[in-house]
Structure formats: structure tokens, C-alpha cells
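Quick one, C-alpha cells below:
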């Protein structure tokens, strides 16, 4: 692995993956997605790892997909590569045998929130803001957000978040069941490691089986969900509204949508 943008380290039986592109608020580009997939392969095969932590450096856990990268793709590339890649890679984390804990700091938006939703548990630092801002760009959440969010918070709250693009606080997210715990920001890393170690001390086979049993009882994303998000995401990204949304983001102004 030749990128520093995503780092994997081990401490005892806990593996930690850190998104490390702080100058871009950890926006996920293709290089980072590839690194995440490589690490998922490694973790899947490493039976010494009992818990996986996901974290972000700087002011954000992750502000989502890199707008500059996806907005340069053709519709076919968008569907074939970008959306399907993200789905496949995030599903790798959801399906890792080990429990995955996302430790959320700062902004947790769009694809960043979708990555967090692929984790089994989410801890949030006080001050964290969570949102699905895609509709503000004229596009849709394309990495299983429309599939996993309703499973956690129910369709009504999921629709509120996704239709409005508004941010919710860590406390609201906890009330809605979107995060498990809210902790003071300076204690986030320690609490995440503490929780990881307490899980890691338990019988690993039993823990991993319970993960699979609970997931079998609460399927987060169907195959139809992948197909639908791929088609809808590719289409939405090539509307005049998406072009306007991306231009407005680049020019740091409010978009003027026309519904075309
Ligand atoms: N993709 C690519 N780059 C992004 C990004 C994204 N999703 N979000 C932020 N960045 C970049 C900015 O372009 C900026 O880079 P620059 O310094 O080279 O100009 C850097 O990260 C810092 O962002 P900035 O907007 O200056 O920080 P801020 O504190 O003023 O605002 C946010 C933070 C999160 C509110 C704002 O960056 C934002 O709205 N980002 C887009 C989030 C989004 O729509 N996500 C879904 C993507 S599909």
C-alpha cells in the first residue's frame, strides 16, 4: 500500500484505520477507496484482529465523496466504478467477521456517514455534525445511505435527513439511535479503544457469530438497493441540477435548481 491517505495500525488485537486527508476534511477519493478495500482484505484474513476501529484526522471524520473526482466521471464510469466500488467496499466492512466501531469527530457527512453506517457501532464526539448533504448538490446518497439509514433510524427520520440535507447534532443522533454514545471530544479515542478492548477480551468466535446473527435478523441492504442506487446515482449526477450544484460548491455560492 503506497498511500498515506488511509492508515492501518495494530495495537494488540485491535486494528485502527485512520482517514488521513485532513486538508480536504478526509473527502474520499479513489486512492482512499482502494486503500480501504485492500485493508478490508487484510483484516478479513487476519484472525488475530478482534475489533476494527475507524477514525478520521483533523476537523472531520469524513465529509463524503470527493466532489472534484466524481464530478469529472462519465455517467457510465460513475455507475460502474464510483457507486459500485463504494457499495462493494463499504459492504466489506459491514461483513468483516470482526466488530467495526466508527469513532466520529467533527463533520460526518455523505459518504463519510455511509462509511460510519457500515460499522457495527458508532461513537460520536460532542460537537459532531452529521448529515446527508447530497440533495444540496442535486445528487443522491449513493453508497447505501438510502438503504442503511432507514434501518437504523426508521424511514421517517431518514427521509427528514436525506430530503433536507440538514445537519443533526451528536446528541440528536444518539436520541435517534444513529450513534451509540456521545463522549467529550478529548476522550473519543480513549473511549473507542476502551470499548474495543472490552469486546476484544470476549470469546472472539462467539462475538463474531453474534454479529452475523444480528445482521441476518436485520438486513441493511438488499441487492436491489445496490442496483437502484447505482442507476439513480448515475442519473442524478448528470442532471443540469447536479451540474449547478457542483458549480455552486466550487464557487462557494448557493445553487439555483430548476428541476432539470
Ligand atoms: N470533496 C472534495 N473536497 C472537499 C469536500 C468534498 N466533499 N468537502 C470539503 N472539501 C475541501 C474543500 O474544497 C477545501 O479544499 P481547499 O482548501 O483546497 O479549497 C477543504 O476541503 C476544506 O473545506 P472548506 O469548505 O474550506 O471548509 P469549511 O469548514 O468552510 O466547510 C464543510 C466545511 C464540510 C461544511 C464544507 O466543506 C462542505 O459543505 N463540503 C461538502 C460536503 C458534501 O457535500 N459532501 C457530500 C459529497 S457527495
Amino acid at each position: 500500500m503506497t498511500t498515506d491517505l488511509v492508515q492501518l495500525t495494530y495495537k494488540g488485537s485491535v486494528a485502527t484505520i485512520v482517514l488521513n486527508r485532513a486538508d480536504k476534511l478526509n473527502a474520499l477519493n479513489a486512492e482512499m477507496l482502494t486503500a480501504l478495500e485492500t485493508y478490508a482484505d487484510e483484516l478479513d484474513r487476519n484472525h488475530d484482529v478482534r475489533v476494527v476501529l475507524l477514525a478520521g484526522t483533523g476537523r472531520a471524520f469524513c465529509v463524503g465523496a470527493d466532489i472534484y473526482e466524481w464530478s469529472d466521471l462519465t455517467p457510465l464510469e460513475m455507475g460502474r466504478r464510483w457507486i459500485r466500488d463504494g457499495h462493494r467496499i463499504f459492504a466489506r466492512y459491514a461483513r468483516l467477521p470482526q466488530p467495526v466501531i466508527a469513532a466520529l469527530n467533527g463533520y460526518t457527512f455523505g459518504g463519510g456517514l455511509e462509511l460510519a453506517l457500515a460499522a457495527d457501532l458508532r461513537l460520536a464526539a460532542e460537537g459532531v455534525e452529521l448529515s446527508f448533504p447530497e440533495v444540496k448538490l442535486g445528487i443522491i446518497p449513493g453508497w447505501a445511505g438510502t438503504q442503511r439509514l432507514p434501518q437504523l433510524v426508521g424511514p421517517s427520520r431518514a427521509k427528514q435527513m436525506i430530503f433536507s440535507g440538514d445537519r443533526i447534532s451528536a446528541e440528536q443522533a444518539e436520541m435517534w439511535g444513529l450513534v451509540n454514545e456521545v463522549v467529550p471530544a478529548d476522550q473519543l479515542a480513549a473511549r473507542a479503544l476502551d470499548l474495543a478492548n472490552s469486546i476484544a477480551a470476549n470469546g472472539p468466535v462467539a462475538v463474531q457469530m453474534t454479529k452475523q446473527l444480528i445482521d441476518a435478523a436485520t438486513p441493511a441492504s438488499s441487492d436491489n438497493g445496490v442496483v437502484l442506487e447505482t442507476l439513480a446515482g448515475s442519473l442524478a449526477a448528470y442532471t443540469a441540477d447536479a451540474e449547478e450544484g457542483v458549480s455552486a460548491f466550487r464557487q462557494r455560492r448557493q445553487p439555483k435548481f430548476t428541476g432539470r
